[in-house]
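Entry 14. Ran structure prediction on the chain below.
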Amino acid sequence: QVQLVESGGGLVQPGGSLRLSCAASGRTYAMGWSRQAPGKEREFVASITWTGDMTYYADSVKGRFTISRDNAQNTVYLQMNSLKPEDTAVYYCAAGGWGTTNDDYNYWGQGTQVTVSS
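Output, structure tokens:
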């Protein structure tokens, strides 16, 4: 069982940036991020392998978000730039699998709220 703890969410103006962090309690192969806006289905937005040689981004965030990881700290990051109001959501960290959908992962964090508003 891997426990995941997210941090770094908050309120930011449109066009601003935030960096989310997710600390895992143990070693993981791949990690990712998903988000859920009110009244919408959870959307898988990014993932990265252990070595970082493979990454995935949803079209909605491609070119604006960057996923990275620090294996020494068992931590994955999501750098979010050029934020838009439609990026407002609870962001969840994922581990325990590999793929580009929510169903590909077994472990999830509790989530961190990101609000983009002026």
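Residues 37 and 117 are 14 Å apart (CA to CA). Will compare against last week's run tomorrow.
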